């Protein structure tokens, strides 16, 4: 995918990060968190018994979707609201010669699928960022088959976090994502999941490696060079990115108050 300098300048922060390759790895918990989510959803075992149908919500550029398609006996669909992310995901699929996955532009709040369509539905790092968390959970459950499994991996605020730090965390998230965000604490998440009436609910909480990105050296080099290039050559991108870079550094500094007061959890349940 190749955009003109003008088209790049019109991108939002999320789309720009996808475009330069900075969204090609899991966020909360990194690869370790994703592998645990896949395991807790039962994908490895269930795919040995039959070909299973899977939906990934907010698939970004398709890294998880394609990896699952490669490893397991399944048909999987990845959806994202970002057109650029979906274009890049389709390019990834084509490069890997995969015929058991597809990608669609879709809103997680209004999924374009019939009731009871998928054996497994999961999401990563999206429900925490949306205001109507109950609505997206309702949509996830709606398209899951009876007896099917749903899951998500999300960030939470540690209990006892001061109002000052909480405000800073939400401000950082809001600035980076470009829309208002309010992260819940773990007890609030548990109450929300209890309201779904799902069976066999499991919640595992983690406090280390919250923003553990598993990039290879060449991936880091590639998107870093692209970022530097657009910061130098594109005024609009420079105006958008520069104010967030200081904030973003706080999200990867293990000693920052932000990281010390964040955790992530893996939730699964059965319909």
UniProtKB/TrEMBL annotation:
Keywords, comma-separated and alphabetical: Methyltransferase, Transferase
Cited SUPFAM superfamilies: S-adenosyl-L-methionine-dependent methyltransferases
Domain of life: Archaea
Entry EC no(s): 2.1.-.-
Pfam family, one: Methyltransf_31
Transferase recorded as keyword: yes
UniProt xrefs under CDD domains: AdoMet_MTases (cd02440)
Protein name stated in the entry: Class I SAM-dependent methyltransferase
């Amino acid at each position: 995918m190749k955009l003109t300098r003008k088209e790049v300048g019109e991108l939002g922060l999320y789309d720009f990060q996808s475009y330069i390759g900075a969204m090609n790895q899991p966020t909360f918990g990194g690869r370790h968190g994703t592998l645990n989510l896949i395991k807790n959803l039962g994908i490895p075992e269930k795919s040995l018994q039959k070909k299973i149908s899977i939906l990934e919500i907010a698939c970004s550029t398709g890294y998880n979707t394609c990896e699952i398609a490669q490893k397991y006996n399944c048909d999987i669909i990845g959806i994202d609201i970002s057109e650029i992310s979906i274009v890049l995901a389709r390019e990834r699929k084509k490069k890997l010669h995969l015929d058991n996955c597809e990608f669609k532009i879709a809103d997680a709040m209004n999924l374009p699928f019939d009731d009871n369509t998928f054996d497994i539905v999961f999401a990563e790092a999206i429900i925490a960022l949306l205001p109507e968390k109950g609505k997206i959970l309702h949509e996830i459950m709606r398209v899951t088959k009876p007896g099917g499994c749903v899951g998500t991996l999300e960030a939470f605020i540690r209990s006892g976090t001061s109002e000052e730090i909480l405000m800073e965390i939400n401000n950082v998230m809001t600035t980076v994502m470009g829309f208002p965000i309010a992260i819940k604490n773990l007890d609030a998440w548990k109450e929300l999941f209890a309201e779904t009436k799902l069976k066999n609910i499991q919640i595992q909480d983690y406090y280390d490696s919250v923003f553990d990105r598993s990039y290879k050296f060449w991936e880091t080099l590639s998107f870093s060079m692209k970022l530097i290039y657009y910061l130098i050559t594109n005024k609009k991108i420079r105006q958008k990115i520069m104010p967030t870079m200081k904030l973003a550094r706080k999200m990867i500094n293990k000693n920052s108050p932000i990281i010390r007061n964040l955790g992530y959890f893996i939730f699964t349940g059965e319909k």
